[in-house]
Amino acid sequence: MRRAWRFLLGAALLAAGCAQVPPSAPPEAARPGAPDLDTAYYRDAAGRGAKVYRVEPGDSLIVVRVYRGGRLAKLGHDHVVSSREPRGFIDADKGRADLYVALQSLAVDDPAQRAAAGFESTPSESDIAGTRSNMLEKVLEAERFPFVVLRVRGVEQDAVQAELSLHGVTRPLRIPAKVDAGAERIDVSGSFPINQSDFGIEPFSVLGGALTVQDRVDLTFAIRGVRIAG
């Protein structure tokens, strides 16, 4: 029974996760059904000499930390969901970006990310596999909503004005961020919380709420882009 509770919580904790896109080719061409990133706009801007960067997999990292709750929280695990596959474009001159991550690119409880989070418990491999499957199929409904999309339309001194689309819901956000735009590359990093319920995701609970998933999850990102030649 205890193992069953832990499995159920693990599956739900991952529900708050995040998402993927293509390399050198335009994102739309590399992944069927990928969000429209307005590639033509970025190509035209680069052709005019603007600082336009392409975000590709490998050099970037998105991490979502999801927490257990309730009176019986000790029966479950906190979890880390991560992806190194955000893709898209950034126009540093206009303070604009269009990025997305495919939910299928999400990794659950990567050992390095769990260590960085300082989580003490260690889920089994079967717990992790079951949690990821349940997260994608039942909670995030990845077949219906396969991507998480972030569109930035303004940059302040220490934040960006953006819209986050997750689970079929789009909400405006002010995201604290550090932007370092150089001649050949750009680095954008920061962290912010969201509530699952704000995006139509019901936090998981069992035993009349004695074992729950906290509504709030914490997201951390480090995005790197390489400048596109004009």
Number of strands: 12
SS content category: alpha+beta
Q: pLDDT under 50 segments (min length 5)?
A: 1-30
Q: What percent strand?
A: 35-45%
Average per-residue pLDDT, rounded, comes to 83
Number of separate helices: 5
Radius of gyration: 18 Å
Largest sheet: 8 strands, antiparallel, barrel
Percentage of residues in helical conformation: 10-25%
Question: Could you walk me through the main structural features you see in this protein, from its secondary elements to its overall organization?
Answer:
- With 230 residues, the chain is of the alpha+beta class.
- It has helices at 2-13, 27-30, 39-47, 111-117, 125-139; strands at residues 52-55, 61-69, 79-83, 87-91, 96-102, 107-108, 147-155, 159-166, 169-181, 185-195, 205-206, 211-227.
- The chain has an eight-stranded antiparallel β-barrel.
